[in-house]
Design goal:
The protein has about 300 residues and is of the alpha/beta class. Helix content is about 35%, strand content about 30%. The chain has helices at about 40-45, 90-100, 105-115, 130-145, 160-175, 190-195, 215-220, 260-270, 285-295; strands at about 1-10, 15-25, 30-35, 55-60, 75, 150-155, 180-185, 200-205, 205-210, 225-230, 240-250, 250-255, 275-280. The structure holds adenosine-5'-triphosphate. This is ABC-2 type transport system ATP-binding protein.
Length: about 300
Amino acid sequence: MLQLKEVTKKFGTHTAVDQLSLEIPEREMYGFLGGNGAGKTTTFRMILGLLDKTSGDISWEGKAVNYEKSHLIGYLPEERGLYPKLTVKDQLTYLARLRGMGKTEAIKELKSWLDRFQVPEYLNKKVEELSKGNQQKIQFISAVIHKPKLLILDEPFSGLDPVNVEMLKEAVVDLKEQGTSIVFSSHRMEHVEELCEHLCILHKGKQVVQGSLREIKRSFGKKNLSVYADFSVDFLSNFPGVTKYKSVMEGCELQIENEAVSQGIFTAIQGKGFVRKFELEEPSLNDIFIAKVGASYE
Ligand SMILES: Nc1ncnc2c1ncn2[C@@H]1O[C@H](COP(=O)(O)OP(=O)(O)OP(=O)(O)O)[C@@H](O)[C@H]1O
């Protein structure tokens, strides 16, 4: 387990990470959400031992983490940095050897990743000949080639087209199933919602939400209600307990104060005509973020 206890990082007078306490379970995928400047990269760099913390404690399996010395950790940094003039093969075998792998084994692993990403022809290409997105795939391979136990991915999906996003998602899911603990950051709620059992949302260095996705959603209650009907449902905009009303082609989408309000609405629409949909939904992470942080988030 990776543990952070009251971790703070100050740059001069600016507090980039403020009293962050987290427990990141083993063999899971853990999501860090937050807008630009929220403190995600700073937290990762502190976890890896690449940046000193101002105060607090960080431990993995009971010990301090040292990325430079441990072969059990993989890291995809936000600022991608491959040597443009080297071939994929030379570069990745070099990096894999730094992380304790033999050359033959590294080439075998590299080839299997290139096959998986459907780019076997890149083996002997120079990095500068590849598109940005494909360079990112190569950098991802450099983070996982040595089969780390703990994998930290800073914005792994940014800049990739939808096909490559799916390919990378499948790869991280497989790594998790093989027992890797994965921590990744994203601006995109839906990626974290889809992939993570546990997550935290950072806002200006502070954690505003933390825990299991299921529990977080449950604690918010089901407050989104869709009502699609063959009669006008406009009167629901003034219904007691309705906090937000959106008219849509087929009816309306509502936010309600609590689940009990839906019962009143259900009674009120009965007998008025044909109801095609009446659905109480869990909040999305986006709803939760906005409720916690405010609508200013982009
Ligand atoms: N070396 C540094 N010196 C001074 N301030 C820094 C330094 N690194 C980060 N910061 C500040 O710390 C805050 C957190 O930055 P960080 O890069 O951790 O955010 P982030 O959540 O990763 O953002 P993004 O999504 O934009 O990458 C920001 O206000 C940033 O300006």
